[in-house]
């Protein structure tokens, strides 16, 4: 069974229809890239996938849970689906370690020594073992974003969603964050990422989805999709690399 199923999802904000019947299915360990112009509905689709937005119709199922259940089902879903945004929003008054331990302690009621052990483990995964006791403002933007990824991983998610996580970073900091994501992909994490990094999508994503005007306009294996776009819209997008 696929880890993520999205079936004919419609989502409107008032009179504005943002998702117009989106369907996709992501197998375990697959990496999907979502590309498309600003306003095409990429972030909304991700937010629907972890229950941050309520869909108007259609079906979403992740890691075996259907969305749209009660509050308890939603909490369970949120522990299975990690989401990382462009802004990392670490708590400035907590150390890196404390930031990472917070959600497992509060949401999953994990005992402190265990939470600390998990925090050390996920920090190592993102290459920041030595920053456990540092405060966020002592870190670069790229390091803070890696902490945000580690914080999400501490919940032991089955699926990770990334929404333009490198868009606010300088090129050299972008690279270190992309490397962490690439390692996660290699380790078999199921991931869906919205990105402007076309080279990264092409190299790391098994499938790429081009969204346009609230629809999946074109999709396919990343190599094929970028090399041989079938629609004028994707051809234009790839050529101009428009954001
Ligand atoms: N909470 C919201 N309320 C009203 N409109 C929204 C909201 N979130 C997104 N939109 C609108 O939905 C459309 C798609 O936005 P979004 O999903 O953020 O696109 P993308 O991530 O592809 O840039 C845009 O027109 C945006 O203004
Ligand atoms: Mg967006």
UniProtKB/TrEMBL annotation:
Coiled-coil ranges per UniProt: none
Keywords, comma-separated and alphabetical: Amino-acid transport, ATP-binding, Cell membrane, Membrane, Nucleotide-binding, Plasmid, Transport
Membrane spanning residue stretches: none
GO MF term (any one): ATP binding
Domain of life: Bacteria
Any GO CC annotation of this UniProt entry: plasma membrane
Localization per Swiss-Prot or TrEMBL: Cell membrane
Gene3D superfamilies: P-loop containing nucleotide triphosphate hydrolases
Protein name: Nopaline permease ATP-binding protein P
Gene this protein is translated from: nocP
């Amino acid at each position: 069974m696929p880890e993520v199923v999205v079936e004919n999802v419609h989502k409107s904000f008032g009179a504005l229809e943002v998702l117009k019947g989106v369907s996709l299915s992501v197998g375990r360990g697959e990496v999907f890239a979502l590309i498309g112009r600003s306003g095409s509905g990429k972030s909304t689709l991700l937010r629907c996938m972890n229950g941050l937005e309520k869909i108007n119709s259609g079906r979403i199922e992740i890691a075996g849970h259907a969305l749209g259940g009660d509050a308890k089902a939603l909490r369970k879903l949120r522990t299975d689906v990690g989401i990382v945004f462009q802004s990392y929003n670490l708590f400035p008054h907590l150390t890196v370690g404390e930031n990472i331990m917070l959600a497992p302690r509060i949401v999953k009621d994990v005992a402190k020594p265990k939470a600390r052990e998990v925090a050390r483990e996920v920090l190592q995964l993102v290459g920041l073992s030595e920053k456990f006791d540092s405060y966020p403002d002592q870190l670069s933007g790229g390091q803070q974003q890696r902490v945000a990824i580690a914080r999400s991983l501490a919940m032991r998610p089955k699926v990770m969603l990334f929404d333009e996580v490198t868009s606010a970073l300088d090129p050299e900091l972008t690279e270190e964050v992309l490397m962490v994501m690439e390692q996660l992909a290699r380790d078999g994490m199921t991931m869906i990422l919205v990105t402007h990094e076309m080279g990264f999508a092409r190299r790391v994503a098994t499938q790429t989805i081009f969204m346009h005007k609230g629809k999946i306009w074109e999709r396919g294996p990343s190599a094929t999709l970028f090399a041989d776009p079938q629609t004028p819209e994707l051809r234009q997008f790839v050529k101009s690399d428009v954001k």
